[in-house]
Amino acid sequence: MKVKFFAPSHGLRLLEAMSTGQVPKLDATVQVIAKAGVPIWFDFFNEQIRDSKSTIYFLMIGDFRFGNRICEGMTDKDGIDKNLITPINDQFLYDKTIIYLEKIYKNNICILFWDLACSENENIKSRKYYFGSKYKHPTWNLEACENNFFHKTIKLSPLLKDGLLDALYIDKSKHPSLLGYIFLQELILKIHNMTRPTDIDIFDTYYSAKDKITKFFNELPKSKNTVIGDSTFINHTYYFRNRGIIDKSFTSNKVTLSDISEFVNSVSSDTPIVYVTDIIFDGDINGYDNRIMRLEKQLKNKNVKLIFWKAWSNEVNKSRNIGKQTDKRFLFSYYALEKLFTQVLVEMPPSDSVEAQSLVEISQDCQPTLKGMLWVYMSNCMSYNDFLLVYNKMIRNNK
Questions:
Q1: What are phi and psi of 237, to 5 degrees?
Q2: What is the CATH number of the domain that holds 110?
Q3: What local confidence, expressed as pLDDT, does residue 320 receive?
Q4: What is the largest CA-CA distance in the chain?
Q5: CA–CA dist 79, 60 (Å, integer)
Q6: What whole-number distance in Å separates Cα of residue 308 and Cα of residue 384?
Q7: Same domain? 48 vs 171
Q8: Which of 190, 217, 244 is the last residue of a domain?
Q9: pLDDT above 90 covers what percent of the chain?
Q10: CA–CA separation, 192 and 367 (whole Å)
Q11: Which of 42, 77, 113, 392 makes the best surface tag, with the fewest CB within 10 Å?
């Protein structure tokens, strides 16, 4: 039995994660078909669904608002125009998705309301759309959607009720975490083995994926870096920690350039510290030079390693042809910083390598993958090659 897995950008990230060795590769009989920001009723997906007994079409439903420009008669159907978010348009787009799913219901399909489940999780946590003690979105609700297509839907509502969704996604766009991708791969495997959606034990699947991640974390060294800095990287560590994607032992602190010495003096002298910064040339030569000189002064005679996360990540994205183009003059490039701070820099893979791509998400905001985040925490405790041995062992064990 073949499986065609249809998804928005989540599928693109899954393909990237598989191609860069972040997660195991799927069986050759599984095809991931993905396009960012488009609804499931879009021609890109619709034209590929057939009445076939040899293929299961696994549909990961993205945001119902994808393609909302159609409400103004526009042909551009990707993304969400915030100016067109209205109750009337929401109802129209929801109805359009439901009518489409009803149209193809007789086909060999399996439905997963991923974005809706994650959105409802966020709404419940922030107490939005509550009427008395009950949650009710004015347009779309997870249990109602799942019950509408009961026999063809993998239910996420039990995980939502038990508060288990947090660790499955990493951002406001509901992109899956490493646990989320392992979880999805387990679901795909069950569908591939012709398990009916209603027969899938969602808790068994979740804890099986969770167990694999836990075993991997147990393989990592117990000692790890204290990560500090002024980078958006630090924000992501807070987010990952608060969602249970990494545990509380992965400590991080917002520390500005001026406060490095004060922080270093406040902790034990044998504490391994990595300073992560977003210093990058932004057109202001004097300001850039001033920040570099201050950084040199702050790090002098300190046991602190350094990562220019934004500058390095921008180079990675440049090799992917995404994001803003960096200044082409060597003096203001990451490679100039690399030469200037070579004695204290954390070892990073070449920015145009597959390994580098495995450490940075496909996004313009320099979002680290879990693998990238873990390397920053482990970089004072082991070489990158040793880290890869541990990480790749997890991949082999998850096949």
A1: -65, -40
A2: 3.40.50
A3: 85
A4: 70
A5: 16
A6: 17
A7: yes
A8: 217
A9: 70
A10: 32
A11: 392
For residue 56, the cross-strand partners are 3
* pLDDT interval class at 330 (50, 70, 90): low
For the CA atoms of the chain, what is the radius of gyration? 23
Listed in sequence order, the residues at least 6 apart from 331 whose beta carbon sits closer than 8 Å to its beta carbon are none
SS (H, E, C) 144-165: HHHHHCHHHECCCHHHHHCCCC
- Alpha-carbon distance of 30 to 55, in angstroms, equals 10
Would residue 21 be called left, alpha or beta, if left means φ above 0 and alpha means ψ between -120 and 50 degrees? left
Range of the domain at 309: 220-397
Report the amino acid identity of residue 41. Answer: W
Same domain, 63 and 17: yes
Which residues, 6+ apart, have CB-to-CB distance to 201 below 8 Å?
none
Residue 104 · residue 49 · CB < 8 Å: yes
The three-state secondary structure class of 175 is coil
Q: Tell me which residue of 297, 336, 296 sits closest to 315, measured CA to CA.
A: 336
Checking 121-124 for CB contacts under 8 A at 24+ apart, the result is 121/160, 121/165, 121/166, 122/172, 124/160
Same domain, residue pair 207 and 305: no
The pLDDT mean for the chain works out to 91
Q: Which amino acid is at 105?
A: Y
pLDDT tens digit sequence for 333-345: 888 898 889 999 9
Q: Which residue has the tokens 């693998």?
A: 371
* Burial tier of 310 (Cβ tally within 10 Å: 0-12, 13-18, 19+): buried
Residues 129 and 246 in one domain: no
Residue 57 near residue 107 (C-beta atoms within 8 A)? yes
Return the structure tokens found at 340.
């200037």
